Amino acid sequence: MEIYRVHILALVSILIFSPVVHGWGIDGHLTICRIAQSRLSEAAATAVKKLLPASAEGDLGSKCSWADNVKFRYRWSSALHYIDTPDNLCTYQYTRDCKDGNGVKDRCVAGAINNYTSQLLTYGSAASQYNLTQALLFLSHFIGDIHQPLHVGFTSDRGGNTIDVKWYTTKMVLHHTWDSNIIETSEERSYDSSPDGLIDAIQKNITAEWADQVPMWEKCSRNLTTCPDMYVLYSKILSNHFPQLVSVLKS
Ligand SMILES: [Zn+2]
């Protein structure tokens, strides 16, 4: 029930603010990364600034859609933006569901979060063999994707890309509506068409209205280093309510 409440709050917040597997649009990813960067520890913030390319000018949000931009250059990365569960099964199991279209295990958004977190933990070690700038840009993007419920959907509807809905007068697929239309319309109506006001509004809610929820969001069960399974579960609970959402958007 508590998890459900969190998701309703998340849904409401998205609605207020708010190829097949793109993830949030540019503003959605930028919003998530700017908020995340503002909440880093001093040591993590310093590491992030050192790892960011110079063109980011210290702003993680400006590079948060990089993983979408390189999807065609790094074709192997496409499967890392989402996770599907079997049709009509409202449960999630990492060992059953985290695999790519060829059945290769650990190739899904939850597996990618584990992998790039492990890589980033080698930061500061002279022996690190990874490209940690890429690891940072992938991780920060995938943390956003895993919270997009249509990235944790059923296999056959391709993350809502086969579901037509109506966004006001325009016909859209559900996935695009969730990625971009909801956020952009909210920005147009309430925040001078800029993500800055949206980010401020979410930040205020985190320190006020939602403050009692924050410890749970931060909690990593069993003291694991990463908790993608918990994030998948949150998104899964929300996506289970999509039939009602779709019926509203179709009307
Ligand atoms: Zn993505």
Automatic annotation (TrEMBL):
GO annotation, biological process: DNA catabolic process
InterPro entries given in the database record: PLipase_C/P1_nuclease_dom_sf, S1/P1nuclease
Keywords for this protein: Disulfide bond, Endonuclease, Glycoprotein, Hydrolase, Metal-binding, Nuclease, Signal
Catalytic activity, as annotated: Endonucleolytic cleavage to 5'-phosphomononucleotide and 5'-phosphooligonucleotide end-products
EC identifiers of the protein: 3.1.30.1
MF (Gene Ontology): metal ion binding; nucleic acid binding; RNA endonuclease activity; single-stranded DNA endodeoxyribonuclease activity
SUPFAM superfamilies: Phospholipase C/P1 nuclease
Gene3D superfamilies, per database record: P1 Nuclease
Enzyme class: hydrolase
Signal peptide: 1-23
Coiled coil (UniProt feature): none
Family statement: Belongs to the nuclease type I family.
Subunit and interaction comment: Monomer.
Listed PANTHER family: ENDONUCLEASE 2 (PTHR33146:SF27), ENDONUCLEASE 4 (PTHR33146)
Protein name: Aspergillus nuclease S1
